[in-house]
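Appendix B. One record, verbatim.
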Amino acid sequence: MEEIEYKLKTNNSVLVVNAVEKLISNIQSKFKPLEKQKFVLENEDLRFLKEKCSSKETVVSLTACQGLLTLVEIGVLEIARTMSTMITLLPTAQNYSAIISTMGGLLVLDLKSRLIPGQQYSCQFSLKNPQHPFITVLEKNTNAVEDVFAQIHALCTSPDYTISSNSLELFRAVFLWMTCSPQHSDINSSRLWQLLLSLNQNKNQEQLLLECLSWQMTWNQKLLIRAFSAYSAVTDAMIYQQKKEYVIALVPILARISNELIKNGLDPRACYNLIERCFALEAPELKMVAGLAVLLLSENLSISPAVYLHELFNLLALSSFVALSLQWLQFPSCLTANALKVASKIIEVYQMNDACDTKLLIANLQANKIFQALIETDSHLSIVFRVCRNWERIREDPEKIQMWLESIDKVDMNLKLELFPFLFGLVLEKNYDEMFEEVWIKALKMALQLVDDKKELTVQLLPVLLYKIANDFSPKLKLECLRAVPLMAKSKENVPSALAILNKLKIGKAVPASFLIMLFSTLADVQVRCYPYLQELLVDCTMGRPELDFKWEVELAKAIAIKNICETQSASHGRELVPAVSSILNQCNDAAGALACGTALGALAALWRLHVVSPPSTWRALEPKLGRDRRVPVQIGLCNLLNEVPGLRVQSPEYDKFLTETAGRLWSYISDSSHPEVIEAACEALSKYKLDDYRLKDIPEVYRKTVKLPSSYCKTPADAARRPEDVLDYIPCEIWPEVFKYTNQAALEGVRKFASTLMSREIRGYRSGIYQPESRGEPTNLSYLSTSSVVRGIFDYVKRQATNPSFDCSDSTLLEMMRCLTADYPRPLPPGDLCFLHDLYHRGAHMHSQCILLAARQALTAGSAKRFLENYLGAINPEVIEESLIMTLFQLLPDLSRTVAPNTLRQPIEKCLEHAYSKIMTSKAKDVPESQVKELLFIKQLEYIKQTLELEKTHDANRTLLSQIIEKYMPLINCDNVAWSTYVTTCCCLAAPYLERMTSPSSWWEVSAELLRKACCIRAELARQGVSDTPLVWLNEIIDAAVGCVEEHSFVLREIAKAVCTARRDDVTRDWLLQLMARAQVVFTECEDTAGKDFICEVFVLSVIAASGHASLEPGGIEDLVSSSQLRYAALPAALAALVGHWGQCAPQIVEWLRHTRALRDINAKVRRACHRSLLALRHCSYLASANVWVRVLNDKQDFN
């Protein structure tokens, strides 16, 4: 041993080799195979050899390590134990090269020992357990990366085919760790990429290359730089090798990376140059990716510093690109001179090219396997690709485009903001066909919605609007763009431009003066500091074009603008506008100026409400002139103005006089006007007044001519000779029937609303004693009420007309009085004998519903009303009576259900429903025109039952009755029946116990396809309507039951997806999705049927897409996704990324569920691949990017590509 130590200390390579050889000989001679484990632990020579592996001397450590490797080759040591020994030596190792070299040799020996003829080699080492030795080395010491790379390079390029052909599998984990690890972005992996790209191109090389590219992360600067270096190396190699499929696939990815580079403050020009080199490749196929790439590059324009513009503009052009480049052309600068020259050329090309490209280029990208492998790794790229692909498919069909845009318009604002370059590009589309006009206007309105949510976008939209105004051929679209210009002032940077445009229109008189005022008014609303410009227009009496602009039109526009300011900014500018209001009221004296005057009075009302001017003094100034004005709009405006008077009440003699005078003016309009709209406006205003606000003499004589002094006021002949209006200090009840009789009969509806308001106020003030009359029976009339009672006056008059009809009251007048009595008041009318209803009922069909309704409202306080109802309901026979009488019953059902006993209601309702259903029992929904469906009697009856069930005032007993009747029809109506959809919405109003009994599969003897469909429809509708705090829970039992019903999977999926689409993206929906994932785990464990497992996965996939709003990106929406598994699996990653971005706290559950599902062997391979792609799309979330999670996700070596 001393000799060996001496030779090792000499550091002479020959002597060191000789010493190690002697050690190996000694070990081999003492080795006993049967005592192998004991020998390895106790042999002194072996222990000495291991110690020398950590020697400071390079020659000694290398040779000692080689000696251990020799002992493995001759069978003295095991590969695994020796590898463990090498790893344990790492903390004390002085020479990592020796350790790494030995590990490489051991890996080769392990590889050869595991090869089985006819089977593919699978490396036992991974990222985590068991961890690859080289990764362990690098985690201990990242400075050893060159030694590790040297070993990898040597083995990957080994002349031994067995080693080189399996080297990528052997080092898969190391490649992934060195190129993708988010915790070790400082490791230089460029040489590893060069090695990977230089190897023989086969399936294994391509898979590893794509896997390493897919897991590149860009959520911080270091990772972004590494990702760009990776893509740059691959792109350079593919351009050199003329691999068009790769180049085409990489262009959109590079466009996305350029956007991330700018966002992170890095120079994107190298990326732009790389994209240019790609397009310089002679490949016509590059056309298919050009549009997508430029749409992505256009997103850079709004965030790109000026210094990078020249390279960006040098790339390509598209309408979206042009739309977003106009903002730079609007503000030229010496800093962007060169770039804007190129941009101008792009605009020229765009303007000269009127041809509409009808080629389906982007659709061809679906055949590019490399692109399909990479696209879903970036959720935004996936979204933009789908939008462009769908646009190509439907761009020739304006109807489909319109429907598609309306669908997108309903999605979450975050998703719409991702599409803003596309929407701006649509606004600039050059298809001038009239059929497309509404499409471009819809796109403009959607763009304006984005501006409302994110005002920074106004800087980009304003130049687009100006370009359309200058160059478009559609007057309608130009008009919409002009209207939108003032809205762009939300961003202060746009105020000078917007003002310059409007001032130019003003000076050039290029638009009607009224339209110009409207534009300035909108501008003042958006930016308060622009108000002086509007004020200048409002006081300008000379504006407009004398030969084209009508004076009344200009004055009306001014009045509308003034009214708008008075309603929104009266505190700051209201007092300044009083002269302008006065000017309009004084100058607009002709018939044409009536609308302007009426609108100006509306502005004055706003000033009154905010106490800018005094109402009494204003009235004194207005009344002499406007009080005699006979123009209808002015009279209506005056009534609306006086509508404000009661609400501004103050305690003062002046204001009391003001109330009396204005009330008298309104009464005069009611009695004297021949225009129903004026009378209705006066009645509405007068209904706000109290009866004490005016006296009997203020009411026109035509209404008070029947009033006589009560006997208590006529104790002497002199007293009896007095006029009632001079004596009475209240309004007698007799006048109210006269108001109905002697007011313009075309305005009776307004009179009825006026009287109903007074009656409601009166009834609300009744005390409980009113409903307990002293007499035993029902009072014959309401004389026990006050002589000023409006209720008494109308009730007693109606009763007299029913029992002793006179010819001075028409049926229409009497009908309006009945409607007044049957209005929905907070309490019933006071008790009174209603036997007169029999006489009134037989006066004609027009009286039927009101008689029944009055009886229903009074059934609890009047026995005569109850008897009338019982007689009426008992006589109903649907086989004999007319359909109109049946409909009267159901129209009044909401009121009947409050007061009538269920035993009385049951028979007529059941009979009528059975009779109506028998007529449509065999009618299919597809056979009946949609316009006729709502006219079917049975459907009308269901609608009224639904209304009744929705009312809180419906008596519980009658609610139970109607629920039982509806439940009875569940097995009778088929899903394809014309009444099924109406029946479903009616069922949604039932209480939970009935719904559970009808639709819960757990309560059925067996789950049939028909029952499952019916239950699914009802529960999906419940979820859509959100009838509970957790609406989507209604779907759970259906999902569980449908797992075993394969033939109904498509139907159930469609209904569930529609329900989830309407769900709010809130915590309740998030919790339901997490519960759905848990239910899926149960199915995976307990269900043996593969179809059932696939179904629960499909439910999850569609639910995620629906909840995220991404279903709207397809022209056919949910229908497209249900009918195509390829579409929904492709949409899942981006949709899931959107939800995780919104619900960051649920990322751990989602990531772990995807990992678990991806690893299952007995589910559809498409589902597993979609889960893998979703994990790629989620790689930027903080949870997945953490060290332990990232390693676990990549540890699985299955082929998902």
